[in-house]
Amino acid sequence: MKIVVDIFGGDNSPQALVKGCIDAMRERNDLEIVMVGDIGQVSDELKKYPHDTNKIELCDAKDVITNDDVPTMAIKTKKESSLVKALELLKNREDICGLVSAGSTGAVLTGGIFKVGRLKGVGRPALAPLLPTKTGGNVCLIDCGANVDCRPEFLTQFALMGSCYMKAMFDIENPKVGLVSVGVEDKKGNELTKEVFARLKEMPINFVGNMEARDALTGDYDVLVADGFVGNVLLKSVEGTASMVMSMLKKAVMSSTSAKIGALFMKKAFKQLKHDMDYNTRGGAPFLGVEKIIVKAHGGSNDVAVKAAVLQTAKMAEKKLIENIAGELRAMEGNA
Amino acid sequence: MKIVVDIFGGDNSPQALVKGCIDAMRERNDLEIVMVGDIGQVSDELKKYPHDTNKIELCDAKDVITNDDVPTMAIKTKKESSLVKALELLKNREDICGLVSAGSTGAVLTGGIFKVGRLKGVGRPALAPLLPTKTGGNVCLIDCGANVDCRPEFLTQFALMGSCYMKAMFDIENPKVGLVSVGVEDKKGNELTKEVFARLKEMPINFVGNMEARDALTGDYDVLVADGFVGNVLLKSVEGTASMVMSMLKKAVMSSTSAKIGALFMKKAFKQLKHDMDYNTRGGAPFLGVEKIIVKAHGGSNDVAVKAAVLQTAKMAEKKLIENIAGELRAMEGNA
User: Which end of chain B has fewer CB atoms < 10 Å from its terminal CB, N or C?
Assistant: First the structure.
C-alpha cells in the first residue's frame, strides 16, 4: 500500500513529517511512502532513522505553499510546491492510494477538487474531522468548513459519506447520524436543516434525528451532519471551550498552596485528561467526496499526529472507503 | 422600580422564584415586585421570609405554561397562566418596567412579541445571554436562538442592541463587536455574514471584524453577533464541552488513589472553577428588541440565579436600555 506525503506542509516540517512516516511504516509492514519535498532536506532527515530504502520513494519539490498563499492561486501557480506535486502523483499514479498533508487547509481542499477531482455524483466534497466523546470514543463532524453555503442535497451526501467513513474506520455497523440543529424535536431547525431532515429520514442510513450542539460529544452519535459554516463554529467552539476550561483549571490550581500540592498528586490524572483531549492521537480530517483518499492533518501536527494520519489513510484505503462511498451514492441515485 | 416575576415558570418554582425575589429586594431598596402565580402557594412561600409587604404585590394565576406546551398556542389560549398574566401586566402598566421568567423559552419569546410588542424599527427581537470569558469577564452572544433564519438587517440590529446592552450592564464605553464567522479574515464567511460584515463596517459601533468560534471566550470581544441558529450551536457547544471536560476531569480524579488525595487538597480550587463556570450567578438572557425589558432566566435557575436575573432587569431599567436602543435605531435609520 503506497501513500504520498507532503513533507513540507505544516508547522513542524520536515522533521515531524519524516519521523511520523517512518513510525507508521514500523507499525504497518505493507506500507510504502512517497515523500515529496526538498530532496536534500528529506534525505538528511531520513539519515536519522534506520529504514528500508525499498519502501521509500523520494520526489523533489523545491517550493512550499504556506498559509499566507491564496489557495486557488497557489494551486494554479506553485507547480513546484510539495503539495501540488503530491496531488499530481496521487491523481496520476494508480499505485498510490492516498495523500497526507499538514499544509494550508484551503490549498489542500482546493487542490483536492482541482487536481484530484470530485467523485462522480458528489455535489461538494467535505472535511470530516473526528472529535473525542465523553465515552472515550469518536464522533465524525461533516462538514467542518469546506462548504460555507450549502444546498440540502450536499448535506444528505455528507451524511452518507460520514456514515461510510465511520463504518470503515471503527467497524460500526450502523453509524448513528445526527443532524446539527437547535433542538432534538423533529420540527426544530432552520429552512436548510428542515429540508435536510425530511430527506435524511428517507435515506438508507441510521438517521437518529436532530441533535443539539450540547450533545455533540456525549457519544450518542457517530456522525454529525452540518453545513460547513455551522460545523466550523461547532468544531471551534469545542476547541475554544476546552482550552478555556483547562486554563481556568490551571489558574484555580495556582491560586493556593494546597491546590498546588493537590495538583502534584494529580499529575497523572491531568496527563490522562490532556491525552484524552489531544488531537495529535486522532490523526487528521479526511476530505471526503474526492476521487482518492486525502487526509488533512492539523497544521501543528507532531510526529505522533503524522503517524496517526498516515495509518488512518492506510486503513481507509484497506477498507475501500472510496469504492464504498461511490457505491452508496450510486444506490442512492438509483432510488431517487 | 417595579418588576413583574412569573413565579410559576421554571423547574424550581415557586420556592426559588420567591426566595430570589426577596433576596434581590434585600440588595436593592428601591425594588418592588409583582409576583404572578397561585396566590395561596406564593403566600405560603412568602411566610418563610421577613419582608416589607408594601413592596410586594400579588397577582393570582392558576395556570402554568410548561415546556410541553406549543408556545404560540399556549400564549393564545392559556389566559390564566402566570406567564400570560405577567406579560399583560408588563404591557399595560406603566409603573412596571421589566419582567423575569424562568419558564418555557419559546413561550417567553412568543409572548414577548405578541403580548408586549416589538420596539419600533426592530426587524426581529433577539435573545442575548452572557457567557464567561477567560479573563473573568462576560461576552454577550446575540442571537442565540430566537431567529433561526435571518436577513442581514436583523444581524446589524443585533449588533446595535448587544452593544447598547453591554454599555448599560458593564459601563463599557465602546463594546467590541465581533461577527461569528469561520475565520478572522475580512473575506471569510458565508453569504449572510459577508453581507452583514459590509454593513457592520459602516455602522457607528466598535466593529472589530470576523471572529472564529475558537476565540469566543477569550475576552477579546464584548458582543458576538450571529443568526439564531449559529448562535444556538455556539452557545450549546460551549455548554456541552465545558460539561464534558469537567466529567473527564472527574473520571481522571477517580482513577487513582493519589489523584483522589490530590483532589482533596484542590477542593477550593475546583469550587472556584465551578463557580466561574456557573450560569446561576450570571442572571438571565434579555430578549432585546421588544418594547419593555424581558429577561429569560434558565429553566433550572435556583434562587441565586433568580436574584441575579431580577437585579439585572432592574439595572437595565435604571440605565434606560430600551430608550437607548430606540434612540440608536432611530439614528441608524436617519443615516441609512
Answer: C
A252 vs B134, B242, B269: nearest CB: B269
The residue of A185, A245, A272 whose CB has the most chain B CBs within 10 angstroms, and thus the best one to mutate to test that interface, is A245
Longest dimension (CA), chain A: 68
> Which pLDDT band holds residue A307 (cuts at 50, 70, 90)?
very high
pLDDT of residue A280: 62
Q: Which of A190, A261, A264 sits opposite B148 (nearest CB)?
A: A190
Confidence of residue A336 (pLDDT cuts 50, 70, 90): low
% of chain A beyond a pLDDT of 90: 83
What confidence category does residue B335 fall into, taking pLDDT thresholds of 50, 70 and 90? low
- Please judge whether A248 and B273 are an interchain contact, meaning their C-beta atoms are less than 8 angstroms apart: yes
- Residue to substitute from B144, B151, B241, interface A, most A β-carbons within 10 A: B241
Residues of B in contact with A269 (CB under 8 A): 249, 252-253, 255-256, 259, 262
Model ipTM value: 0.92
Query: With contacts defined as CB-CB under 8 Å, which chain A residues touch B238?
Result: 237, 240-241
| Inter-chain Cβ pairs, chain A and chain B, closer than 8 A | 189
- Least CB–CB distance from A269: residue in B189, B226, B256: B256
- Residue B139 CA to residue B298 CA, distance in Å, equals 17
Average pLDDT of the segment spanning B240-253:
82
Using CA atoms, how far apart are residues B26 and B21, in angstroms rounded to an integer?
9
The single-letter DSSP state of residue A204 is S
A246 to B245: CB separation less than 8 angstroms, yes or no: yes
Is the model more confident about A95 or about A136?
A95
For A206-248, strand residue ranges (E) read: 206-212, 223-225
pTM of this structure: 0.93
Decide if B182 and A218 are in contact by the 8 Å CB cutoff: no
Cβ–Cβ under 8 Å, residues B173 and B205:
no
Q: How many whole angstroms separate alpha carbon B89 and alpha carbon B35? A: 11
- Give which of A219, A209, A160, A207 is closest to A189, Cα–Cα: A209
Q: How confident is residue B204, by pLDDT bands cut at 50, 70 and 90?
A: very high
CB-CB neighbors (< 8 A) of A246 in chain B: 245
Give the residue carrying C-alpha cell 508547522. Answer: A11
pLDDT at residue A281, as a whole number:
67
pLDDT for B40-72, tens place per residue?
999 999 999 999 999 999 999 999 999 999 999
Cβ B252–A230 below 8 Å, yes or no? Answer: no
What nine digits make up the cell of B213? 468560534
Q: Largest Cα–Cα distance of chain B, in whole Å?
A: 68
Long-range contacts, stretch A25-28, CB < 8 angstroms, 24+ apart:
A25/A51, A25/A52, A25/A55, A25/A56, A27/A307, A27/A311, A28/A1, A28/A311, A28/A314
